Amino acid sequence: MEIPGPSEAVEVQLRSRIAELEDALSATEARLREVDHRARNDLQLVWSILLMQTRRLPEGPARKALRRAADRVAALAAALKHLPHPADPSRLDAQALLRELVGEIAAGAGRPDVRLQLDLDPVRVTPAQAAPLGLIVEELVHNALGHAFPERGGQIEISLQETDGGAALTISDDGVGADLATCRSGFGIGLVELLCKQLRAELALAPGAPGGLRAAVRIPGAS
Asked: Fewer C-beta neighbours within 10 Å, C or N terminus of the chain?
């Protein structure tokens, strides 16, 4: 029987070690996929429960608040759905995430007289940025749908642009406008400001042109 030389023995050990690492990586990816699947199922269950509870309530503030909670859970589920594959875990496609999220908002808004216009660069964000970004868009678009057009239709523009080392999100409408101090005292904008802190982002509210409201969020280190 031929006895392998030192170099051959090292090569055999190296191949064995590589095979072990590949097996370990495959097992880790399988566990991550299972965790991702369970998390999405859990969010879907929470969303379903919230909707069931909403239907049991009469029209009023409580029903509206519960429905908004369900909408926020749906936004989180959308962000989780777009998390990258473990083989490329560093970035995800924010353009695809926001396109899906805005489409779902438009489908459930019941406002065919309001047009949602998208202008999205292929910006890539980190997984940690995805959920806050999705919730910010969900909150600002719903805020515009709920308050900007009480007696007429109009347009809401959602823009995501690449900047030096980051991204700029802008959501503007041509509605009736709003008092900026009143906006900042509301729960919705308060939630947006909290989410912006998570992103280390800056939120700026300003009157739109020629009317309405413009919300701009500058996100560092997103691209």
From this structure: N
Which candidate, 157, 152, 162, 195, places its Cα nearest to that of 173?
Answer: 157
pLDDT tens per residue, range 158-204: 999 998 878 999 999 999 988 888 888 888 888 899 889 989 998 99
Place of tokens 């049991």: 56
DSSP state of 111: -
Contact (CB, 8 A) for 137 and 169: yes
Residues in CB range of 96: below 8 A, 6 or more apart: 82
Taking the C-alpha atoms of residue 98 and residue 141, their distance in angstroms, rounded to an integer, is: 11
Q: DSSP H helical segments within the chain, as ranges?
A: 6-56, 61-81, 94-109, 127-147, 180-185, 187-199
pLDDT tens digits, one per residue of 35-87: 555 666 666 666 667 677 777 778 888 877 777 777 777 777 777 676 654 54
In sequence order, what are the beta bridge partners of 223? none
201: closest CA among 152, 172, 157, 168?
A: 168
Rg (CA), the chain: 23
Q: Name the pTM for this structure.
A: 0.69
Q: What number of CA atoms fall less than 13 Å from residue 162's CA on the CB side?
A: 10
Interatomic CA distance for residues 163 and 170, integer angstroms? 13
